[in-house]
Amino acid sequence: MPAHRLDARWLLTMDGPPIEGGAVLIDAGGRLEAVGPGDSVPLPEGALESSFPDAVILPGLINTHTHLELTGFAGLVADPDFAPWIRSLRTLKAARSRDAFLEAARDGVRRCFAAGVTTVADTGDSGVVMQALAEAGGSGIVYQEVFGPHPDQVRESMNGLVAHVAELRTFESDRLRLGVSPHAPYTVSGLLYEAVARFARDEHLPVAVHIAESKEETELVTRGRGPFAEAWRGRGIPGLDVQAGGAFPRSSVAWLDRHGVLAPETLCIHAVQLDPADVALLALRGAAVAHCPCSNRAHRHGDAPIAALLAAGIRVGVGTDSEVSGKLDLMADVRLARRLAALSADAALGLVTRDAAGALGIPAGRLVPGAMADLVVHKVRGVDGGSMADALLDQWDPAVGLVGTWIGGRRVYRAGHEGGVA
């Protein structure tokens, strides 16, 4: 791959203030060799050159929570109540073949590229997203889900997880990492949480877990009531008071901590139903949070205490969740997160760039020399006298404004090109 110099009306590195008339130089290995004002970035002999006089160059976006294997299910699960919604989704998944899941994941990856997303943190149980990302040269973490609410299921669940991990590790690369995801308190026993946490530590795997998402979950965990508790009783699954040795846990977050799940390598997905003690515990353990504000509202879970999480120093990134829970419109989630926490435009954009990378523990989200050249170019206008970040947030619309997406210096999306593939 030849070196490639790109310049634009604006350069937003997310490592300093916007640069008017900025440029980047991508070396033959797909890394950023130079970043800065145009007159400071050379054009080596034989290098390609691209100019975008009406656009901004910025880091590729990071979606901190997706379910790309569920692509194509939009609008097919309409039940407003969460527990029956979960059951309907399971029915849909059971009817989809592995080949269909793989094609859905491939489509989801292409749609990410067409939306300026270069890195995803995906959870799923089919394993196909790992393959789809590897095929496309994508970047991110894929968390293999594991289920088993009855304590007697631990051995069976762990045997399945170990086998999946061994198979999926063949797709790992410098840009694509495998993780594990004990799904949620209503699908995972305390003993299984403990076993998965131990396995993750031994295998050096990051962990993602859906936690404190719904009021129904909180009812199950803290009182043994509600639709999830009723489903458990119907299946003969012991309540968490029995699993805990006589008393219900104080909260879902406390239940995770009791079983060694919370750690700096843990991504807590949703984290809506939190009290100050939960926030303090997440901060103490160094866990990160994937904030999905549009999905939370679509399911009527409420709003996560994003301002309190950030104030406590907790690493936070924004994600879309699956298209079953809403649109795969990452900037819509960013705009809502901004309103909920009264963030500046720069801080809001950080939730899908530099800070999202920090939440996932990966080297991405900034345009700095030596970094992989994951970047997007989006048209922007009317910045004079205003904030570049504000203008970008206001005008972001990949369908009309996204010019291209690059991962590791390779263009994976080109506006107007057939299929969007460069």
Describe this structure in words.
With 422 residues, this protein is an alpha/beta fold. The chain contains 17 helices and 16 strands. Strands 1, 2, 3, 4, 5, 14, 15 and 16 form an eight-stranded mixed beta sheet that branches. A four-stranded parallel beta sheet has the order 6-7-8-9, with helices on both faces. It has a four-stranded parallel beta sheet with strand order 10-11-12-13. α2 packs across α3. The model has no long low-confidence stretch (mean pLDDT 95).
How would the blueprint of this fold be written?
Layout: E1 4-11, E2 19-20, E3 22-26, E4 32-37, E5 48-59, E6 61-66, H1 82-94, H2 98-114, E7 117-124, H3 128-136, E8 139-146, H4 154-168, E9 176-182, H5 190-203, E10 207-211, H6 215-223, H7 227-235, H8 240-243, H9 252-258, E11 266-270, H10 276-285, E12 288-291, H11 293-298, H12 306-311, E13 316-318, H13 330-341, H14 345-350, H15 354-360, E14 375-379, H16 388-395, H17 398-401, E15 402-407, E16 410-414
Parallel strand pairs: 1-5, 6-7, 7-8, 8-9, 10-11, 11-12, 12-13
Antiparallel strand pairs: 1-2, 1-3, 3-4, 5-14, 14-15, 15-16
Helix pairs in contact: 2-3
**Total of DSSP H or I helical runs spanning 4+ residues:** 17
Report the helical percentage.
25-40%
Proportion of beta-strand residues: 15-25%
Instruction: State the oligomer.
Output: single chain
Whole-number radius of gyration? 22 Å
The span between the termini is 14 Å
Structural class: alpha/beta
General shape = globular
Count of extended strands: 16
> Average pLDDT, to the nearest integer?
95
Stretches where pLDDT falls below 50 for ≥5 residues? Answer: none
- Sheet of most strands: 8 strands, mixed
